[in-house]
Amino acid sequence: MVILALFPWCLTPELYAAKPDYIQSLADFVRSRPAQSVASFMQQSNAVITHDAESQLSRITAPTLITFGRHDVATSTRFADRMKRRIRNSELLIFEACAHTPIYEKVEEFNEKTLEFLQHHAAAAAASSSGSVRRA
Amino acid sequence: MPKVKANNITMNYDQQGTGEPLILIPYLSADHACYAFQVAEYAKHFTCISLDLRGTGETDKPEGVYSTELLADDVAAFMRAVGIPKAHISGLSLGAAIGMWLAPKYPDTVTSLSLHSGWPKTDPFLRAVVEPLQVIAKALESVPENGYSRTLPVVPYA
Question: What was the ipTM of the complex prediction?
Fold first, then answer.
């Protein structure tokens, strides 16, 4: 029931129309994972409701990739400018034709673009460690 | 699946691939497997460590108030416990919210930060998205005679 209530926040109407089997498989996948108790759900969702890291953004120094789905409603691009502006070393990427979960909606594109960022900063990290290639 | 004691709880995690460490923080209610589609690619280049947050999967579920700052403390303690001094940090939604605390609070532990579908502070609209889910969850909890119980899966997806 809750899962049915939540999926529309995460996926676009277009995806529902185009790939009903895929959406069913996502629902099956989520159901196949260890169940969360109602008590734990309340605790975690309260952490969502009380989340306030506004004062922390300007303290972030790590290179940061900020992404949103163009059609996300829950966490829409209304937050994008604020985050981009306050996190000094940040870049912003918008996934078109996506809502809240580009990780499932545009898997290939999401992986490719986020890997590009990660690899760029992996190489930068290695280069800055006294000239020697560092592998963790 | 390996487990480790961190911040007074036992945390469950999964590790795949080789390369620099990349820690993947799940979204609300999800366990480490939620990033399966990403790990399939990321693991070709990075050591992917996806964990179960406090209250999810096979990690402990202690009582008390959870906050995104506390969950970030858990991730930092987890890194110390498994011997990862510094890593790329990535999270979606709740995972991103946690990253916003982890990076400033433990700056020396973060190589890069990926914030997907995140938000800096819950606003009235986001609250209006989440609160009805809590109403549904509570309603399920209140009807054990119909076969529901506190352990009924709610498997939300946010």
Answer: 0.91
